[in-house]
Amino acid sequence: MDGSSRDNIDTEERARLFLEQLRWPNGVRCPRCDASTGISRLATRGQFQCDACGYQFSVRVGTVLHGSRLPLWKWILAVYLITESEDGISANQLGPMLGVSYKTAWFLSHRIRIAMRDEATDLLSAEPHGDGIPQQRLALLQRSVIETHRRADPKHLSAYLDEAAFRIRNRENDRRFLETLVRLLQAGAVPYTELTAAH
To answer: Could you give the 3-state DSSP secondary structure of residue 57?
Structure first.
């Protein structure tokens, strides 16, 4: 994580301001009516209020972070650890790093993988560039998943493959951490049933 990002997440308030800037680089917009003017900040609550429709909202509303009670700085740190890990990181490893239970780390990891959806499909269908034919790429992805997630539930294999493909496709991308955060903020809220279902 670069120095400016580190500075931005040393408190919950700074983490929230950091995510607000990523989500609304051109100014806050109401998620309900899309108004861009007449938005008031409710500073003591970390929220906004839209004067046009009266809706109160935070940076979490309508995103993958919606409904989560986990502090925003832990979300940011988790995204950093997952995207910057060379070989991947399991929920068993992530939990102690964030000071959360295995169950929380598992759900957090799977929500973050929402931002990596379809990476495996895109990688396998891409033209070869000296890295082997699709079958060899699939074998590479499967090996990566097995090494990182030794007891991975087969029904979530596609999510794990997407994560491995994301890591391969973004090896040279210095902005993968920030881009993943933006994708999480742009993705809709994920129901529990969808998160735990087979893909």
So the answer is: strand
